[in-house]
Design brief:
Blueprint lengths: L19 H16 L4 H13 L6 H10 L4 H19 L1 H4 L13 H5 L3 E3 L9 E5 L11 H15 L3 H6 L1 E5 L11 H14 L4 E7 L5 H17 L2 E4 L3 H10 L19 H14 L1
Helix pairs in contact: 1-3, 1-4, 2-4, 3-4, 7-9, 9-10
Length: about 290
């Protein structure tokens, strides 16, 4: 069954118009395709996940990959297998097949996640996209490994995808490097982040908002664009100038002030105390 699509939005994206019948048909075709997809090695981690804990490869899990790839079954199968291959390497076999929860698969990464380098904001944009807020100035490499911080990124993106509209319409990645130093830029970490977003995680980036870039940003920006690839490069919006100008630009992109952190002139509190309270609530609810 073919999907119809919406008109392009302000970010140039079109979204499949879902019906229960078409979604069920796509899931059936994906399951059939996975039986013969790629090589045994390509499917090894996915097959192991099915054997170890079938609940983590449920229909709802597979649907995220179909939505990410606009219901292209072959691309969804490829991303799904890439995801499980990367998850096995990143988390190790002991944790890879556990649910991504703070007290299970993430229990050894609490130092990195409590720093709040990557946060999930409570309110979406006007189209229902979840907003993830990244402040590189909060990094402290002496406290955690690159891999631990990448696991935090994976966890936050999975939380973001709990909102169904974020699966369907994408997420907003809001980067706030105003207080960052050149030493905070980690080429290896940037590549690991971009590889996860481009090849593995079932996310569509609606827009990549860089707000209040520091002066050295002109040096690292070409490197970032190289890592991100053409698709993500086309989603980047660099917002400089006064606080009022940046806020107005975000508002014009469909991000209301009620969804924007106070650091950018909005209404959302994202300080350390608030973030730790959010983590405590997550632990209780997971």
């Amino acid at each position: 069954m073919e999907f119809e699509f919406t008109e392009k939005n302000k970010f140039g994206q079109r979204h499949p118009i879902e019906t229960a019948e078409k979604v069920a048909d796509a899931l059936r075709r994906l399951d059939e395709h996975l039986l013969q997809f790629g090589t045994t090695e390509d499917r090894a981690a996915f097959d192991l996940a099915c054997q170890q804990n079938s609940s983590v490869v449920s229909s709802s899990h597979k649907l995220m990959f179909l939505r990410c790839e606009l219901f292209n079954v072959d691309l969804a199968a490829k991303r799904l297998c890439n995801y499980w291959t990367a998850r096995l390497v990143l988390f190790g076999e002991e944790k890879a097949f556990q649910e991504l929860k703070l007290e299970t698969a993430m229990k050894d990464d609490m130092i990195a996640i409590e720093l709040g380098i990557v946060k999930v904001l409570p309110n979406p944009d006007e189209e229902g996209r979840t907003i993830c807020f990244f402040d590189p100035s909060l990094q402290n490499r002496e406290l955690y490994t690159r891999e631990s911080l990448v696991r935090c990124l994976w966890y936050c993106f999975h939380v973001a995808l709990e909102r169904e509209s974020a699966q369907q319409r994408g997420i907003i990645l809001c980067v706030y490097p105003r207080n960052a130093k050149h030493s905070h830029f980690d080429r290896g970490l940037a590549k690991m982040f971009s590889d996860s977003m481009k090849r593995c995680l079932p996310i569509r980036i609606g827009s990549f908002q860089v707000c209040h870039p520091p002066t050295f940003f002109v040096i690292i920006f070409p490197i970032l664009k190289l890592f991100l690839g053409a698709y993500l490069r086309n989603r980047i919006c660099v917002n400089g100038g006064s606080d009022e100008k940046v806020l107005k630009k975000l508002n014009s992109c469909g991000i209301p002030s009620s969804s924007i952190p106070e650091e950018l002139g909005g209404e959302v509190v994202v300080d350390n105390e608030t973030w730790k309270a959010w983590l405590k609530e997550r632990k209780q609810s997971e």
